[in-house]
Amino acid sequence: MLESFIQWLLDRFRDLGYPGIIVLMAVESSILPLPSELVMPPAGYLAAKGEMNVALVILCGMLGSVLGALANYGLAAWVGRAVVHRISRYVLVPERSLNRAEQFFARHGEISTFIARMLPVVRHLISIPAGLARMPLWRFALFTALGAGVWCTVLTGIGWLIGRNENVVLGALNQEVQRSVAHVMVYLVPALILVALGYVWWRRRRGPAAPQA
Question: Which of 22, 64, 167, 170 has the fewest CB neighbours in a 10 Å radius?
């Protein structure tokens, strides 16, 4: 079943092409999140097969991430905190997740828009407290693009490496392990998440971030 899903996903990316990556990553960065682990690794796999360009895949992922984040930023800056919290329940965003994103932004300041791109849940919500705080737009777009660039590169690289070594991997593993490898490709990037969580723990040990000018 998992192999069928992976094949279906790859076929959809062949149909959607680069515009599809932009749209899907914009959705991933909005208040209607779509896991980026379902977008970038399959595109990286197709790049390894010569069906897409790896640099364009990453750039499209970055562009989509920034566009989705800007939509959140603009909405939050326009309607204000009270309205954001009031409507969050209607767009499948738990208030506790929104509060978590606000606390993360308060602790780490503007750089959190970079760090959060590599953290689950907070990733697609950090643009809301940035908009509420009226963070300078150019700084918000820059930090978001840099963070999205790192994340998209890692996910695309995972798909690319699997695509380049598919015969070796599939030849060495039995069918059950193949399913596990596919599952890891789509859903898990443990090393990067551990690094990001380690950074958060380190900042907490140091205490609150100094107020920014």
Answer: 167
pTM of the full structure: 0.70
**CB neighbourhood size of 194 (10 A):** 10
Q: Is the dihedral of CA 93, 96, 102, 107 positive or negative?
A: negative
Confirm if 101 and 128 have CB atoms less than 8 A apart: yes
Cα–Cα dist 124/97, whole Å: 10
CB 42 within 8 A of CB 80: no
Mean pLDDT for the stretch of residues 118-141? 82
> How would you classify residue 50: left for phi > 0, otherwise alpha for psi between -120 and 50, otherwise beta?
left
Using alpha carbons only, what angle is made at residue 29 by residues 26 and 32, rounded to the nearest 5 degrees? 90
- Asked if 124 and 30 touch (Cβ cutoff 8 Å), the reply is yes
Tens digits of residue pLDDT in 19-46: 989 998 998 887 666 788 888 988 898 8
CB 160 within 8 A of CB 44: yes
Please name which of 96, 65, 95 lies closest in space to residue 73, comparing C-alpha atoms. Answer: 65
122 DSSP assignment: G
Region of residue 121 (phi > 0: left; psi between -120 and 50: alpha; otherwise: beta): left
